[in-house]
Amino acid sequence: MQTYKPVLTKADFERRYRLGEFGNHSPTWESFDEFWASRPWPNRLYHLRNRVIGGATYYNVPGYIVGSMFQRAVEEGVNPKDIYVSEMAPTDRTTFQGEVMRGVWGLELTYTHEKLPMRDALKLSTRTARGIIGVCLLRQFMCPNSYDWLQVLLDRYPDHVVEFSCYDTNWGTLPNFNTVFWEVRKY
Hints:
alpha+beta
């Protein structure tokens, strides 16, 4: 299988993510202005994300206050160009989430079952699995479409980590996927 250009920066990843290169993801807008122009649902929840690794992020923001949260982030020192907006994933429906890669010893999986955004969930509870145990866990929680796509990502991006969240329902930009792929990054 053809490999793709490595993902070497957060900005490069974010651009390619929005274009759908990595498969099913959260509906995402490049900037606050693009988000606002789309006439968002006022009662849906959104996530103000940061293009800077480890930068401030704001979860579960109702649509009717995204503007004021954006302003707050700027006042707290976040560069407005570093903020983009995604629809908030249904974290209350999370079944399994984590990071997976093919390492020296085969498949390596770090995961949690916590029903929180991944950054918070992995801080609270982290488990690991390798090889066939990791494969069995992924197959148990990912629908067949999601599992197959994960294999494509691992083939296309060797030496990369894939972040994902599985839900008890289909959710994201593609139909019939219960898994969102949050990030693909070179390790």
